[in-house]
């Protein structure tokens, strides 16, 4: 990891380049109109993933319900931070997590959710690796006043992370069947695990 000063500079630059959640979704949709995905790499597979994720985010935005206890905790939290999320439209984990992150952020005026492209901020991403990889989404909790990283989260909720790690121990890598099973888990969980994880970051 680079020096704190350098990381803060990269975060500040990221915030300056960032989108609101609604703007990010619009960017994903606009690129799909051109047959493209976000990010520097383009392929038919990535575009297809983006199309699926675009629908997934729209559905989750409409159907997600936040537990009343969690909602109350977020509303009452005394915080003044930016939640800066590194993401890409083709990422299935991001599509499942961002709608939840957005719902929680909107509960508190002290949380400013901003989204940036991982590929456009490679140096920043390199300071928040997961097991040496540039896994997304990655949420950085940044105190604007004190110029300080308070925490980070991602790329998956804690239960999903354990599922991935356990599968890798047994099978060596993630195959298409596991990835499908993971999406089924997300659908059944309905954002509960993520809300619990993020509640701990308040």
Can you give a write-up of this model?
This protein has 202 residues and is α+β, with helices and mostly antiparallel strands. 54% of the residues lie in helices and 13% in strands. The chain has 9 helices and 4 strands. It has helices spanning 4-17, 21-33, 44-63, 68-76, 92-105, 122-125, 158-171, 176-189, 192-199; strands spanning 81-87, 111-117, 138-143, 148-153. The chain has a 4-stranded mixed sheet, with helices on both faces. A hairpin with a 4-residue loop joins strand 3 (138-143) and strand 4. Helix 7 runs antiparallel to helix 8. The chain is globular, with a radius of gyration of 16 Å. The chain starts with a helix and ends with a helix. The mean pLDDT is 95.
Provide a concise account of the structure shown.
The chain is of the alpha+beta class and 202 residues long.
List the helices and strands and how they pair.
Layout: H1 4-17, H2 21-33, H3 44-63, H4 68-76, E1 81-87, H5 92-105, E2 111-117, H6 122-125, E3 138-143, E4 148-153, H7 158-171, H8 176-189, H9 192-199
Parallel strand pairs: 1-2
Antiparallel strand pairs: 1-3, 3-4
* Low-pLDDT windows of residues: none
**Count of distinct strands:** 4
Q: What is the number of helices?
A: 9
Mean pLDDT: 95
Order of helices and strands: HHHHEHEHEEHHH
Q: Please tell me what the overall shape is.
A: globular
- What fraction of residues sit in β-strands? 5-15%
Percentage of residues assigned to helices: 40-55%
Coarse structural class: alpha+beta
Radius of gyration, whole Å: 16 Å
Q: How many angstroms separate the termini?
A: 24 Å
Output the strand order for the largest sheet: 2-1-3-4
């Amino acid at each position: 990891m680079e020096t704190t000063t350098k990381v803060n500079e990269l975060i500040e630059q990221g915030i300056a380049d960032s989108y609101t959640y609604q703007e990010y979704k619009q960017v994903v949709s606009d690129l799909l109109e051109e047959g493209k995905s976000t990010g520097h790499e383009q392929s038919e597979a990535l575009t297809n993933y983006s199309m699926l994720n675009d629908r997934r985010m729209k559905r989750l935005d409409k159907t997600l319900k936040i537990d009343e206890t969690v909602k109350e905790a977020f509303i009452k939290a005394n915080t003044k931070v930016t939640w800066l999320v590194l993401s890409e439209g083709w990422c299935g984990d991001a599509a499942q997590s961002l709608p939840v992150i957005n719902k929680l952020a909107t509960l508190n005026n002290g949380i400013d959710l901003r989204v940036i492209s991982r590929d456009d901020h490679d140096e920043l991403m390199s300071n928040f690796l997961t097991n040496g990889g540039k896994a997304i989404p990655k949420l950085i909790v940044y105190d604007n006043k004190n110029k300080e990283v308070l925490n980070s989260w991602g790329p998956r909720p804690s239960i999903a992370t354990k599922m991935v790690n356990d599968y890798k121990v047994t099978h060596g890598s993630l195959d298409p069947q596991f990835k499908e099973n993971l999406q089924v888990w997300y659908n059944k969980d309905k954002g509960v695990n993520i809300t619990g994880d993020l509640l701990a970051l308040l």
